[in-house]
Amino acid sequence: MPRIPGARRRLQDNPVVGHKKVLLAAPRGYCAGVDRAVVAVEKALDLYGSPVYVRKQIVHNVHVVSELEQQGAIFVDEVDEVPEGAHVVFSAHGVSPAVVNAAAARGLRAIDATCPLVTKVHREAVRFARDDREILLIGHAGHEEVEGTAGEAPDHVTLVNGPDDVDSIVVKDPDRVVWLSQTTLSVDETMETVRRLRERFPNLQDPPSDDICYATQNRQVAIKKVAEQAELVIVVGSANSSNSVRLVEVALEYGAKAAYRVDYASEIKQEWLDGVSSIGVTSGASVPEVLVQEVLDDLAGAGYADVEEVKTAEEDLMFSLPKELRKDISGKQDARALGGRGTR
Question: What residues act catalytically?
Answer without folding.
Answer: 145
